[in-house]
Amino acid sequence: TLTSFGVFLLQMGWGDLGVFGEPSKETPHLDQMAAEGMLFLDFYTASPLCSPSRAALLTGRLPVRNGFYTTNGHARNAYTPQDIVGGIPDSELLLPELLKKAGYTNKIIGKWHLGHQPQFHPLRHGFDEWLGSPNCHFGPYDSRERPNIPIYRDWEMIGRYYEDFKIDLKTGEANLTQLYLQEALDFISKQQASQQPFFLYWAIDATHAPVYASKQFLGTSQRGLYGDAVREIDDSVGKILKHLQQLGISENTFVFFTSDNGAALISAPKQGGSNGPFLCGKQTTFEGGMREPAIAWWPGHIPAGGVSHQLGSVMDLFSTSLSLAGLQPPSDRQIDGIDLLPVILQGKLIDRPIFYYRGNELMAVRAGLYKAHYWTWSNSWEEHSKGIDFCPGQSVAGVTTHTQEEHTYLPLLFHLGRDPGEKYPLSFASEEYQRAVEHISGLVQQHKASLVPGQPQLNVCDQAVMNWSPPGCEKLGKCLKAPESDPKKCSWPH
Amino acid sequence: TLTSFGVFLLQMGWGDLGVFGEPSKETPHLDQMAAEGMLFLDFYTASPLCSPSRAALLTGRLPVRNGFYTTNGHARNAYTPQDIVGGIPDSELLLPELLKKAGYTNKIIGKWHLGHQPQFHPLRHGFDEWLGSPNCHFGPYDSRERPNIPIYRDWEMIGRYYEDFKIDLKTGEANLTQLYLQEALDFISKQQASQQPFFLYWAIDATHAPVYASKQFLGTSQRGLYGDAVREIDDSVGKILKHLQQLGISENTFVFFTSDNGAALISAPKQGGSNGPFLCGKQTTFEGGMREPAIAWWPGHIPAGGVSHQLGSVMDLFSTSLSLAGLQPPSDRQIDGIDLLPVILQGKLIDRPIFYYRGNELMAVRAGLYKAHYWTWSNSWEEHSKGIDFCPGQSVAGVTTHTQEEHTYLPLLFHLGRDPGEKYPLSFASEEYQRAVEHISGLVQQHKASLVPGQPQLNVCDQAVMNWSPPGCEKLGKCLKAPESDPKKCSWPH
């Protein structure tokens, strides 16, 4: 029988889990998952922002290859808001498309975020089932300016955030996580009953601003509303793993937990999480922006209590899943993910670099314990003066810069073992610096020489493409009138 | 039979342990100790500096009561360097003095730090045996200016740092931790053989600058020399616990691991540790300066894998040990420690505040999850401009101040659950602020009303009292000539 996969992709920081030192230690089920499986301490997402990371996970390719980036400005983070015109190109091969050919049933629960126009629908890209939203459910709410985000079941919307899926913005109460949990349990039961292998991608948005939790979790965390949401996610993960065990299929289901970007410190303290000892957060290419909590779980296969320092990436989930399914990755394109099975099952360490991109720019590269910054930037003085701060309470001279600083010819080098917080650049004159930078610069040259950037998908915005009239709206009487098309360059301030 | 005690008092930050989220996760034995015992997440030392914390641990009393503070300046940290005249007053009752009456054999291995003049000798204050040094082994070394610190065995010195107990300052190599480990193992064996209850206080200095490790540990850590020292300590703790188990006395030995102050970030990255997500480090009354790693271990009594949010203090080790020995704490003086046995054995939570003192000033108070700062200060602009930085890479406006800022009438209030990093003071106008501050101010009033400060011991310095001619020096030909006595006010810049 084929091995099934579960991927939990949350929006949490490295430091949000008890097992990673969150001082409230309120994630007993994730801590238990780690105790039963393997903890990755050096695991990365592919972008400091959500949409590009998700596209990277599902394609096994860097956003600069799969098109999830912008060229509207230099080194700008871009994602898929309601007015984005682009999305996942048909030319990209997604993990569920490949698994489908091997007989897998693929389900996404939660936020898709790879484009919301019809051609980008997840069921057109390999998924068989969907319950969730195409975008983040940002404000303003119930305004004329933009429709509330729809929630889909498979091909059609079944309602909208706030209108049909209530979130009390004052209390943070919403029962969506319970809905998404039940959906996961039911799907797993169905697959077990029909003995069909599956890929379940559980990518819910409770910890993304505006943060929410169910009534039974509200007020239960020391950490406030964000902690309530984390506790509910933790509880849900525990219930899903227990369900796999009770159905007797846990030894045949490979499960991975990780996150799509570092905690959004701009939303702290009420809605922002923790990146532990790391520098800055979401939106930046410092460790706080891209190093993620990660746990692999597969009872009977992965030795309990394992810890790995393998440099890993969300893109590896693509390659690892294919390997488990006995499939070959596509050979007609560059795949950035690697197969982690030798790491997970045999304790190997595979030498590979981590590339930290911000939009169209390679900002930094990690090889071994060294990280070289070719560009540094947090955000502009202009944004910063408005109170937008990606590094609250942190300031490292020459590192957390508010102008884009180029270091191409003399990269800033950090040793992440001695200095995980990226506070003490190595002396340019040291032998250690020269040896490490020479090595990393070779990797950069090799990487850039073979790089074929994809067509950028996140350049054009148009109010007309918003979720005015998603399929199914007519049955619900929820179709809205779109304005005239007026495509513009999207504005990406950071 | 009476329960024996082991106290490991190290110089490490909250974030230095794998179980507290250090990203290299290199402390398997301490993590295992936590898995077998109880982890305290909200445990504090009694001062952001070493000597006063140690005096507090052994007396169960705040430094401002037991005399380990200075009045030479406002809110100044003071300790016991070589030229200090004061030390632990005879009027203080130390834990080993009390235990001795109940038949315990008491041993200190490592740094005493409660004064080095003859009247302060640990064997005059209840300890039966000693291997270690009276002070830190600071530089300058082999100079005329000051003698190298002696190492004592019991009443007499057996050599000096650098001269007889080598530390290679270039490589950091020294075998002292191995010496101290062997001494602990031998002492435990001896006590087990004679069936005598014991108190072992293992307070070694490998992670205090200048940091050292044995050859077998040098270069083994991702974290550099500091990490090598941590690994050796971790390994030693593991060996001592295993020894207790192999001798069959682990169920009759209560063991506690903690630290005397937060990691010294001024020594980072080479010799400084990690305070995890907390603000600043040693020398400050922010969480990074005083929240400590803490683990209780007592197989067969403490349920494995326990976690406690009890607000704990090193002073509680005094009261807890007495309780275990069936002794009453002295009733003729104020004891600040509480008996943690109901917490450890029955999972209770005892309501009690934590007082954060810097020298003679009550800087902050924690009650529940709220912490009120009555004074804020990191260090002076003058010191800071010399590169002395207790909060490297961190800067929170109005909080990590470089002038002593008084907030007596409107304390800065933080909620440590939502904001463990002390970055977001609560609004003065909020109901939450008013409720919490009213409660804490009541505690402060009560505390101050009953406070009888001790005679300050750390005011006077004199080159003549340095370790020129410790007892035993003549046998070794290591007596040095002391200069004329010239007592002065000690200078405490921060």
Which regions of chain A are unreliable across 5 or more consecutive residues at pLDDT < 50? Answer: none
Mean pLDDT of chain A, to the nearest integer, reads: 97
CATH class wording of the largest domain in chain A? Alpha Beta
- In helices, the fraction of residues of chain A equals 10-25%
**Biggest interface, chains and residue tallies:** A-B, 41 and 41 residues
**What fraction of residues of chain A sit in β-strands?**
15-25%
Shape of chain A: globular
- Compute the CA-based radius of gyration of chain A: 21 Å
Quote the distance from N terminus to C terminus of chain A. 47 Å
Number of helices of chain A: 12
In the CATH hierarchy, the architecture of the largest domain in chain A is 3-Layer(aba) Sandwich
Oligomer: homodimer
Q: What kind of sheet is the major sheet of chain A? A: 11 strands, mixed
Write the CATH homologous superfamily of the largest domain in chain A. Answer: Alkaline Phosphatase, subunit A
Modified residues (3-oxoalanine (Cys)) (chains A, B): 50
InterPro entries (chains A, B): Alkaline_phosphatase_core_sf, GALNS, Sulfatase, Sulfatase_CS, Sulfatase_N
Glycosylation sites (chains A, B): 175
Subunit structure (chains A, B): Homodimer.
Descriptive notes:
Two copies of one chain form a homodimer. By secondary structure, the first copy, chain A, is of the alpha/beta class. Chain A is built from twelve helices and 19 strands. Chain A has helices spanning 28-36, 50-59, 63-66, 95-101, 176-193, 225-246, 287-290, 316-324, 341-346, 381-385, 431-449, 473-476, and strands at 4-10, 38-44, 105-110, 129-132, 150-153, 156-160, 198-203, 253-259, 291-297, 306-308, 312-313, 354-358, 361-367, 370-373, 375-376, 405-406, 412-415, 460-461, 488-489. In chain A, the strands form four sheets. In chain A, strands 1, 2, 3, 4, 5, 6, 7, 8, 9, 10 and 11 form an eleven-stranded mixed β-sheet that branches. In chain A, strand 5 and strand 6 form a beta hairpin. The model of chain A has no long low-confidence stretch (mean pLDDT 97). Chains A and B meet through strand 2 of A and strand 2 of B.
